[in-house]
Amino acid sequence: PALSTGAPAPGRYERVSDPVAAWDAAHRVWLIASLGLVEDDVALLVSRSPDGVRWSPPIVAAAEDEGSYDKEWLACDNGTVSPYLGRCYLAYLETTSGRISVKRSLDGGLTWSAPVSPDSVAALGRFVNGVFPVVRPDGRLVIAATAMNLFTAFGEDDIGAVASDDGGETFGPGAVLARVSGQEFNGVRAPLLVTADVDADGNVYVAWADCRFRPDCLGSDIVLSRSSDGVAWEGPVRVPVGPLELDEDHFVPGIAVQPGTAGRSARVALFYHSWARQAGCVIEVCPGI
């Protein structure tokens, strides 16, 4: 594939945001991706480390002259039987076009391919963000994301996923995991973003905040959808994060599967934020906001 120059960042970025880390087992290197910002310009930066302590100067994986970016995420193929072992994927929202894009690196994050924008992701909804890539042991790349109503949790939002069997060069049709009647959480900027992971057998888990199991959508839970292949998905189930009768919101989850575990024996960890609702509370008058 066509590769970027991989030139080190010139130190012009005033701040960084949205950091995410990944381990590339084939090249034995840690990668951290972030958004580099200076004035109105945004770039995708990747730093490399052999040990998580010593870090290289950041490499510009995508420069501001290509577009503007948000909510990037990073994943590497560490499957020993995968034909794409050692390939890393950088997925993100390209805000100018409003499309999800994916770049690939075959050399431990030193250089990155031209972006690929799956049409099947764009077809999921009005505004797609919060892209989250995971890689099954057989090398299938699965990308989950949220099709949102103008990046607010009000209204109907779709949780969707799409898969690639050729190392991120092309993508199949998109699948809708669930339609979510969302809500905002007083005093907290918490858009409906997904989290995902995969177990040793290739089962894919996607979680998000959802009020579907609450009467009149009063309060929200964390729900989970599962797929054995990353293409066909089971209906969402409620994670028992607390009693349904409590007037609480649970949101912005993160999920991780213990390596080497799978299926009914999979050890799945889930963390999230919780917020107790207050009757009659609005953002302007809620105590503590």
Concise summary:
The protein is built from 1 helix and 17 strands. With about 290 residues, the chain is an all-beta fold. A 4-stranded antiparallel β-sheet has the order 1-2-3-4, with no helix packed on it. A 4-stranded antiparallel β-sheet has the order 8-9-10-11.
Order of helix and strand elements from N to C terminus? EEEEEEEHEEEEEEEEEE
Intertermini distance: 49 Å
How many strands in all?
17
Mean pLDDT metric: 86
Q: How many helical elements?
A: 1
Taking pLDDT < 50 over at least 5 consecutive residues as the criterion, the unreliable ranges are 1-5, 282-289
Please supply descriptive tags for the structure shown above:
about 290 residues, four-stranded antiparallel beta sheet, disordered N terminus
